[in-house]
Structure formats: structure tokens, C-alpha cells
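pasting for the record
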Amino acid sequence: MLLEGLHIPLTTPFHPDGRLNLPKLAANVARYSKTPAAGLIVLGPSGEPTLLSDDETREALRVAAEAAAPEKVLTAGISRNSVSATLDLADFAAELNYDAALIGLPSILASNANAVGEHRLRELLTYFQTIADRSPLPIVLLSVNHRSIPTEAAIELAAHPNVTGLLNVDRSESYPAAIGKILARTTSVKRDVPVTSIFGAVTARMKMAADRTVSNLVSAITLTGATTAIAEPPSQPALRTRTKSVGFQILAGHTPEMLNGLRAGAVGIAPAFAACVPQACYEVFAAWKDDDQALAEEKQARLREAAHLAEETLGPASLKFACDLNGYFGGLPRLPHLPLTGAQRAEVELRMKELRN
């Protein structure tokens, strides 16, 4: 699966009483589908995934898949502590025609992950390798500050044929250097992925729609009722694809450092702040892609303060309130996360002033 471009990590809407708000999730997905984003990440780290039950997780995945445009790459955040529970959700996401599964370090292996001993490292590798062996979906590894995947482990996992990439949301200053190190050590990883005629990603839902189009074609014999043979040209595929060779694909997930991540070799970006300002985040990627470094720096700089406040300082409530300010439904976070105070809301509004739609 091709991971280039902007992938938007969705927030998860809730009713004021804490129930999952599926109509608002569908509305958000439909609107994000009209942006230039390449893909959507459902129940990523900014979607409060650990606060959802397995049934709620399935409902959120289902509703998002039904509302998403077919050309958007869909990634399902399905990490669970056990291998079997994670694979159950991978099977479910595959049935919904998701394109990839986002798998992070389980909490039981997360303590002191960067200083793991040999036994803990074997446990970590076994967890991911076992899932990758059996998952019907390609795996995108998730590395975040409190559940960081050690660099050496990421390098070893990159060689697995069903591990397609890494979403790095590490907020440390060494994060671009870690991306560079992983890519330098995985240059031998090469895979052919299907792409469209303009080198966009080919999603499972695009293939399904194309198959339906072909199956609905009516033959000339059926129309004419002829009993003699009628020469018919072979049917042309509704979806024309080609292949592209890619290496181990990394997505830069920390807004203040996403440009440095791209320069270090990331193929795309997936900052949590994109849920609030998808167009502004995409403009950073587009300027970098066009090799207009001055413009990319300018576009990144205008995001930095607001993104720092929304992603790091005030937590999920601020990210959701920033979504509300730009017409995406954010709503309240689920307890134990608390809503913003009046003063905090005013601060977010001030930082978002130049980023309002």
C-alpha cells in the first residue's frame, strides 16, 4: 500500500453523556474525504482509542469505512494487548475493506521500551511478527513517546513482507535523526505496490467498485438473444493500474517536526493537528513536494504554536475544540479527559485565529 501524502488522524466524537456519536463521525469523514488528504486514520493515537470498548471500536471502524470516499487510504487503529484480540480486529477491518492496520506497542510491553533487555526485545518482536504473519492487512507500526518502538526493533520489523511502514509520533528532538537511521538501515527493503495512472494509491474500495462495474456489464449476446457467435472485444478493466517500487515507508506524525521528518526521508505526514486544519497541513507537504523549501518553512511556522498547544499541552479536549472552530465536529473528550476551561478555550481560539477556515 502506498502511504505518500497527508493522512488525517481522526478524532472520535462523543455525545455529552459519553456515548459514541456515530452520525458526527460519519459527517466528519465525509468532509475530510473532500480534502486533498491521501488517507484517513481511524482510531489513531489522537482518537482516544484506549477509551473505546471492542464493540465501539468495530462500530467506529464500520461507520468511517461507509462514509469515506473510495480513493482515500483507510488505516485502522486496532492495537490490543493480546495478539489474538488484535488479529480479531484486523480480520474485521479487512472485511470492511480497510487498506492497512495501525499497530502500536502494547501497554504491557511499553515500560522502559527504549532500554529493553534481550527477553523484552524478543517479546516485542514476537508480538509484531506474529500479527504480521497472520494479518490480512499490511501493518503500519505506531511509535509514540510513551510507547516508542526501539529503533533496532523497527529496523528488524521492516524486513517483514507484511510490515509496510511506520507512523512516528515521537516528540523528541532526535526524532528526524531516528527516521534517517531507520531508512539508512532498510535500503534493501523494496516492494512493488499498485498505483493509479497518476501514481496515487489504489485502495481496496477502489478495486471493489471496479469489480462491481465489470460484473454489471451486459454482453452483446444477452442483449440481442443471438444464437450464433458474436465477436466481442475483451472487456477493459474499470480501474487501470501500474506498479511502483517503494521502500519502507515512514509517516511523520509530529506537527512541529513534520517538515524535518520529510527531509529525513518520510514519504508522508500524519500529524494529529491535521484533524483541525487539513488544508494547512497539506500545504506543508505540497510545498515540500514541489521543493519550495522557503514556502514549506513558512507554512510549517504558522502551525507550530497552535499545534503545540492542541497536540501536547492541553490534550484531546483542545484538539477537539480546535476542530469545532473549523467546522469539524470535535465535541467533548471522554472521561477521564476533561473539557477545556473558559481561559483554555480563549487561548486555543487565539492561537487558531490565523488558521480558521
